[in-house]
Amino acid sequence: MMTVNMMIFNPCAPAIRQSRAALRRVVPLILTLVLLVPIAPARAGSPPDSITDSVLNPDERLQVTDPYLEMHTGPGRGYPVFFVVPRGQGVWIVLRHTDWYKVHTEEGKEGWVQRAQLESTLTAAGVQKPFRDLLLDDYLNRKVQLGAAWGEFKSEPMLKIWTSYRLSETLSIEATVAEVQGVFSGTDLWHVNLISEPWSDQRISPFFGIGLGRFRNLPNQSLVEALPTASQLGNATVGVRYYLNERFILRADYTLYTAFVSDQRSIEYRAFTGGISFFF
Prior knowledge:
Elements (H helix, E strand, L loop, with lengths): L12 H27 L22 E2 L4 E5 L8 E6 L3 E8 L2 E6 L4 E5 H4 L15 H7 L3 E10 L2 E11 L4 E11 L3 E12 L7 E16 L9 E17 L2 E13 L6 E13 L1
Antiparallel strand pairs: 1-4, 2-3, 4-5, 5-6, 7-8, 7-14, 8-9, 9-10, 10-11, 11-12, 12-13, 13-14
């Protein structure tokens, strides 16, 4: 008896392999940036805020009311806890970096404490020490964003990366690079958009945008007589942002693309993506 092995050709296999390869290149970079942002210490050129901040009074003693106050070696959750201040003892604030405060204890220890723990401390008058939500201030004053998203472009998988710069409270400019891996072809595109965000000071903020760019479609080599296509690209987008926490923002958007393949012919594509970004 003879056994015949048959190989079944899957037209999706090349596109799937290319899509996975793109993800392997991009995802580690995004994850690395996302993980480093919350725990990054102050740079040499950006020292922590001095005691001129209205919250910082080196002569004001704050009494610990929680069971303990954790002191870190640096201004971030990635730094280890090296000392614990028990209830009833006092601390003095000497420096601030983002949402972290450097404190001095009665025993001469110095370390960094997160604002959430200091909010329960009491002043000499027996009232809670007021603290501004500095992270919210950072969100309201954000300038640069960097993000990535995954979705569908004409029912085919789409991966895109974008960066934006805030020009004013309601206007920003955004640059996007995207890759689409379909069954029979692959598509690369880039575009620059002007984004309007009327309610940018809200936690949930809708936005609208229009932009121009370039579009390039590359057919699979298995297709006979199929030629690459390159054209100008216009788009209109609408979406919503949600301020998640710290420096992270969730985003979902719907975009209508128009590829001007010739003077008499244009092709429309619709895309929906969802992703995450961080600001600095």
